[in-house]
Please model this.
Amino acid sequence: MNFDTLYPHMPKKIRYPVYPFKLDRGGHGLLIRDLAKRLFMSQKKLECAIDEKLLILFEGIFPSARYTFTDSGKSALVVAFRAFGIGESDEVILTTFNCPAVIDAVLTVGATPVLVDINERFVMSLASVKRSVTKRTRAIILTHTYGFSEDDQLVNWARSKGILMIDDAAQALFNNVNNVRCGFAGDVGILSFGSTKPIFSLGGGCVIWKSDRDSVYSSINISTESLDQLTQRYTGYLRERFQLFAMSELPEWSHVLLKKFGILPTLLNDKLDALPDRVDNAEPLLMNQLHKQILANQLKQFKQKEEALALNFKLLKSSIETCCDISVVGDIVEGHGYNYFTLLFKHSGDRYRCAKYLSFKGIQTCWNYYPLHLMPIYARFGKENPNAEKLWKLVLSIPFKPPNTADDLSYIASCVVQSMREVSNESSSVYG
Ligand SMILES: Cc1ncc(COP(=O)(O)O)c(C=O)c1O
Model:
């Protein structure tokens, strides 16, 4: 049987969700307070010093830049493309080992995506870009998948050719490469505050404009999301929190009932059944003031999270050292994605076996990415990409982010080690 595209069945009780995204108490409070105030005040009066507050926080991370806050990371990409006049007749290079939101952003503006292969560090190489570049190439998107960085030579080469470098740090918000923060290495940077990201802010994104791009920044003219749109996001968030609560705390019989009434989703076990069947265009909006306040609140934990994630990464590395058939993706010196804590298996099939064992232990897992050029709707934008076709079968991400405690982390790490023993013994009955 081919396990490559399968997820194991969900844990009966999810002890460790793979996406533990949480809004801190400030987020809930702000929203409720603001909704209450809105009954008595105009939106205008509500606009306080938030822009300045957010500016100070961002200045500490990406100094001397301009920022456009959007309703999502995908919107941020679209805003950047439009600002630089990228559209029909232009080509944009990105790797095939990527999130569908990235290719959809390219397609939204009518440009042609060109999917290139990854190297053994999951990012594009100069050689693969050179093979794909044409006269129509206007931009290259760096994605720092799993926190790895693209070769400096690539950035320098693209600059010399006048190709725009879009530094998408949605997957690497906490990374520094040669003392430059991801998101700040290209001509324009992108961030995401979506539900799978370490700084979750009911979704949202940001375009970071370097100071020499002031005129491009000033040309942005789009509408702002409404309070109702933000409230809808909040309701969606509360629904997902309830679902997680139900799957981790309520008895199994109640799950069946909740699924029957559509309160709990029925999750698919095969990634092929969940592939996108159409391009999901983005219509970008600017973040509204309340959304910005929530983001500012979440960002206050930046330093603390950065440190915690780095420590967790070291712990995972040292705990898995003894397993010869897996390694941890990322490098302590160079950095790590901190968005996903990802294991790399030597043998295809072991990913599924390990995930199944972990599920049995209450640990949820996920894997990214199924290469874009293998998805029927994007197949025409890429040819054969042998590295991506090999590596996607070998990665598995595990829940290793805060708020997990040290005890949680050692339990999860020990389960990973045990799963590999079970795999090599092939004698366990738990995943027979
Ligand atoms: C590299 C990258 N860029 C952009 C996005 C889009 O971000 P969002 O989900 O906020 O639209 C994602 C989504 O995960 C991503 O992985």
Observations:
- The radius of gyration is 22 Å.
- The chain has 15 helices and twelve strands.
- The domain at 299-425 is CATH 3.90.1150.10 (Aspartate Aminotransferase, domain 1).
- Residues 427-432 have pLDDT under 50 and may be disordered.
